[in-house]
Amino acid sequence: MATINTYLNFEGNCEAAFNFYKSVFGGTFTFLGRFEEMPEGDGYKVSETDKNKIMHVSLPIGKTILMGSDTVGDWGPKFVQGNNFSVSIIPDNTEEADKLFKGLSAGGQITMPMENTFWGSYFGMLTDKFGINWMVNLEQNQA
C-alpha cells in the first residue's frame, strides 16, 4: 500500500516549525539540510540572507515522513501560507489523539475541538501557530 507523506513550505521559519513538530511527535530528523549546502547553478544563486534557511528537513512520524523547506529566491516556489491543505493524522487511540491535538494547538487556533462526530469518528481540527491546518481523526472502532 502506498504511504502519503506531507511536504510543507515556510517563509523563513521552517526550522522553528519542525523543532515544534519534533517536540509534539518526538523522534529525530533523518535529514536537515540548509541552502548553503546546495551547489549553485546557472538558473539560481542563493543569497547570503537565504543560506542558513532550510533546504530540506525530514521528520519520521509513525510510518510516514513529514518534510519541509523554506521558500527562497526568484527560482523557488512562491510562499502562500496554508496553501489550502490540511495534514490528516490517524492516531492509534483516544489518548494519543488528545495528546497530539493539545500539542499541535498550543499557540494556534482550534477550529473544531476533539469530539465524537456523526460520521463515527473522534475528530478535531486546528490551525497551528505556523498557519498549518491539521485534522485528527480516530475512527470509533479504533478508540
Automatic annotation (TrEMBL):
Pfam families: 3-dmu-9_3-mt (PF06983). Residues 4-136 form the PhnB-like domain. CDD domains: PhnB_like. InterPro entries: Glyas_Bleomycin-R_OHBP_Dase, PhnB-like. This is VOC family protein. It comes from Aureibaculum flavum.
